[in-house]
Amino acid sequence: MGPGSGSGPVLRPPRRGASRTVHARFSVRETPGVTVGAPGRLPYGVEGTARRTAQRALGEAGRGYLGGHVELRAPRGLAPRVLRRATDRAVALAVAATLHGAPPATRIRLRPRT
Q1: Which residues pair with 37 in a beta bridge?
Q2: What are the residues whose beta carbons fall under 8 Å from the beta carbon of 73, sequence distance 6 or more?
Q3: How far is it, in rounded angstroms, from Cα 44 to Cα 49?
Q4: What is the distance in angstroms between the CA of the first residue and the CA of the last residue of the chain?
Q5: Lowest mean pLDDT among 28-37, 41-50, 57-66, 73-82
Q6: CB-based contacts of 23: which residues, under 8 Å, 6+ apart?
Q7: Cβ atoms of residues 108 and 89 within 8 Å
Q8: The model's pTM
Q9: Where do the segments described as Disordered lie (predicted)?
Q10: What is the pLDDT of residue 114?
Q11: What is the rounded CA–CA span in Å between residue 58 and residue 1?
């Protein structure tokens, strides 16, 4: 029996790089202030970095009077500096994309340690 014909679940190989990616999605709100949400606990310092980056990006775009919500997913177990830099890039790109009318989600892949 082949897959899909009642032989049980089809097991897929694990996705490579999925756990080493920072995902950011930004949605604009009319009220000032930026909130950050995540499906689980974020590593220490990442939430504050995301909030400050979104506020800075809105201000630089001349939209400092707006606010929004950042939905963020970040891997655990990496160096804090690497996560903060990747979060900064991902959130800035997500805010810029949202303001320009592009899809509001971005993914930043982290380089493996060598």
Answers
A1: 71
A2: 21, 22, 23, 38, 39
A3: 10
A4: 43
A5: 73-82
A6: 71, 72, 73, 74, 90, 105, 106, 107
A7: yes
A8: 0.78
A9: 1-48
A10: 56
A11: 56
